[in-house]
């Protein structure tokens, strides 16, 4: 999956696609950004806008409580 164009991917699928890449291929968010040549800050902002944040302890994007995604 080409995550380079993450800003154009379906926002309902994006967190799951990123979490799959994190689980299967990457040690952490920095590794994901480096591996897929992504702007990490822009990615985090996009996910924040969608109601998600990266949780390093579980290496996943998780819904922010109260965002309507939990």
Explain this structure.
The protein is built from three helices and two strands; from the N terminus they run αααββ. The protein has helices at 14-25, 29-35, 40-49, and strands at residues 52-55, 60-63. The chain has a two-stranded antiparallel ribbon. A hairpin with a 4-residue loop joins strand 1 (52-55) and strand 2. It is globular.
**Coarse structural class:** alpha+beta
In one word, what is the shape? Answer: globular
Helix content: 40-55%
Distance between the first and last residues' Cα: 26 Å
Round the mean pLDDT to the nearest integer and report it: 94
Radius of gyration: 11 Å
SS elements, strand count: 2
Strand order of the largest sheet: 1-2
The poorly predicted ranges are none
Largest sheet: 2 strands, antiparallel
Strand content: 5-15%
Topology as H/E string?
HHHEE
Number of helical elements: 3
Structural key phrases:
single chain; 70 residues; alpha+beta; two-stranded antiparallel ribbon; 11% strand
Mind sketching the topology for me?
Elements: H1 14-25, H2 29-35, H3 40-49, E1 52-55, E2 60-63
Antiparallel strand pairs: 1-2
Q: What would a concise description of this structure say?
A:
The protein is 41% helix and 11% strand. It has helices at 14-25, 29-35, 40-49, and strands spanning 52-55, 60-63.
